[in-house]
Amino acid sequence: MADEKIVFTLDGGDVVIGLRPDLAPKHVAQITKLVKDGFYDGLTFHRVIDGFVAQGGCPNGNGMGGSGTNIEAEFNAEPHVRGTMSMARAADPNSASSQFFICLDEVPYLNNQYTVWGQVESGMEHVDALPKGEPPREPGKIIKAVVIEA
After folding, report:
1. pLDDT for res 55
2. Burial status of residue 41 (CB atoms within 10 A of its CB: 0-12, 13-18, 19 or more)
3. 87 is in which domain, residue-wise?
C-alpha cells in the first residue's frame, strides 16, 4: 500500500497523488478500494472555490452522497497546504465516506479537523483549471481513477 499512488485523469491531464498510509491507513485503504472498484470514474467536482478547495467524490454530484461505508476519523497533524488531499465529512467527525477535497491554497483552519490522506505530486495545474462554482455550471470530472505502483 505504501508503494502505491493514485492517478486521477481529468479533462486537462493526469493528477498524481502520493498516498500517506502512515497518517491515515483506514482512509488510504478506503480510497484505494473505491478507486480499484471504479467508484470515482466519471464523478464530478461539485464544489470548486478558488483559493480554497476542489471537492469531489459524491456519486450524486451534489455533495450529499457517499459510498455507503463511513470511516472513523484519523485526524493528524499534517497541515492543509496547496495540493493536500483530505476527506470531506458531515458534522460527525466519523462520517467521511468517499468525498474528498484538494486544497488549492494553504487552509490552516482545516488543520486537525479533517483527515489528510495524501498529497498531489504532479498535475496541480489540472486541478487549478477545474471549472469554479458551488456547483460549477459545467463541472469538471474524474474521467478515470487508477491505482499505480510507485
Report:
1. 98
2. middle
3. 4-149
Cell numbers at residue 53, please?
478547495
> What parts of the chain have a pLDDT lower than 70?
1-2
pLDDT of residue 1: 46
- 35 in the Ramachandran plot: left (φ > 0), alpha (ψ -120 to 50) or beta? alpha
CATH code at 61? 2.40.100.10
Instruction: Please give the model's pTM, rounded to 2 decimal places.
Output: 0.96
CB of 43 closer than 8 Å to CB of 140: no
- Which residue type does 25 have? P
Number of domains into which the chain is organized: 1
Strands 116-122 and 144-149: unpaired
